[in-house]
Write a structure and sequence with these properties.
By secondary structure, the protein is of the alpha/beta class. It contains nine helices and 16 strands. The strands form five sheets. The chain has a six-stranded parallel β-sheet. Strands 1-11-16 form a three-stranded antiparallel β-sheet, with helices on one face. Strands 2-3-4 form a three-stranded parallel β-sheet, with helices on one face. α2 links the parallel β3 and β4. It starts with 5 loop residues before the first strand and ends with a strand. Bound molecules: (4S)-2,6-dioxohexahydropyrimidine-4-carboxylic acid and zinc ion. Zinc ion binds next to loops.
Length: 346
């Protein structure tokens, strides 16, 4: 592609975000709604969103803070062991839930209500197939004898393949694909799609695990080897319909990140996520495929219309702020203090 100084693309979506609730939601919401059109808001609040009444309330809380026409949140139901199937099916039918999210128990933030045995959620998976709605998966197998770097591979081999065999018609998104193994699996397997974050295409484990762990680069699944990063870049930039945007932008207050023994996993990239993807696609000489990844492939997968308006990206340097703040909340911005070469025209 010729050297470009500006680029117009259909307004991007974000098929995997964390907006949180209360003051933290108020703190971060503008970083998302400044540019994102449709987004899937993950349901891992302290009280998981596992029934329709909670989903409706949460959506209302989010929408009360939005003052534009293009930002549209969608919620998946957090699958717990005690899903009320009638409520769940009604919520799918009435589009309160866009699908459902599987968190293996204790795999990440607020996942203690997650699934301990996959067969416990089989009735919910049947409902998903019945209404042709997708299952979104945090694909990590947690076990003392599995290294933190191998959790994705073991999940695929031991659990995902079983789900696929038992529910061949179920549409599945393997969220935040983090390994070459996982990305190859998505590319080669029917009915499986994948989201890719910016941070898994920028960081490797050396950026996280130094003498001290770098809390601001610590996320689940953890970032891995250079070879994994390269594979993810290749798939994202290829235009392959099976891969689409999902930032997994996951804000935590500094109190959960610094001077604590219990570092919460999560990287808050919303203040510059679209700009980072643009930079990555530019580095890979693939700006011609950016729009498919950010604005088309995901909408197709979810059977939703692509956004009607466009955004303009300019090749202009700008510096990302270090923090996003509100009241007594302070969140570290991913890439804060660094210079980016692409910015969004206001
Ligand atoms: O790093 C992560 N943070 N990974 C997840 O899966 C959840 C997220 C969060 O909610 O903080
Ligand atoms: Zn997430």
């Amino acid at each position: 592609m010729n050297y470009l100084n500006s680029l117009e693309i259909i307004r991007p979506d974000d098929w995997h975000t964390h907006l949180r609730e209360g003051d933290l939601l108020k703190c971060v919401i503008n970083s998302y709604s400044r540019v994102i059109g449709k987004c899937i808001v993950m349901p891992n609040l302290k009280n998981p969103i596992n029934k329709s009444s909670l989903g409706k309330e949460y959506k209302k809380e989010i929408l009360s803070l939005i003052n534009n026409k293009y930002f549209k949140p969608f919620l998946p139901c957090y699958l717990t062991d005690d899903i009320d199937s009638i409520d769940f099916e009604n919520a799918l039918k009435n589009e309160i839930f866009i699908g459902a999210k599987l968190y293996p128990i204790n795999s990440t933030t607020n996942s203690s209500y997650g699934v301990s045995n996959i067969e416990n959620i089989y009735p919910s998976l049947e409902s998903l197939v019945k209404f042709n709605k997708p299952l979104l998966i945090h694909g990590e197998k947690i076990s003392e004898d599995i290294s933190i770097f191998d959790r994705e591979k073991y999940f695929i081999d031991d659990q995902l393949i079983k789900i696929i065999n038992d529910f061949p018609n179920l549409k599945i998104v393997l969220e935040h694909v983090s390994s070459e193994y996982g990305a190859n699996f998505v590319a080669q397997t029917n009915n499986i799609y994948g989201t890719i974050t910016p941070h898994h295409m920028i960081l490797t484990k050396k950026d996280v695990f130094k003498e001290n762990i770098n809390a601001h680069h610590y996320c689940m699944p953890v970032v891995k080897e250079e070879s994994d990063l390269v594979a993810l870049r290749n798939y994202a930039c290829s235009g392959n319909e099976k891969f689409f945007i999902g930032t997994d932008s996951a804000p935590h207050d500094l109190k959960q990140k610094e001077n604590t023994n219990e570092i919460m996993p999560g990287i808050f990239s919303a203040p510059c996520s679209i700009e980072l993807y643009t930079e990555i696609f530019d580095q890979e000489n693939s700006l011609n495929n950016l729009e498919k990844f950010t604005s088309i492939n995901g909408a197709k997968f979810y059977n939703l219309e692509v956004n009607k308006d466009k955004i303009k990206l300019l090749r202009e340097k700008w510096k990302i702020n270090q923090y996003t703040e509100y009241n007594n909340i302070k969140v570290k911005n991913f890439y804060g203090g660094n210079i980016l070469n692409w910015r969004i025209e206001n």
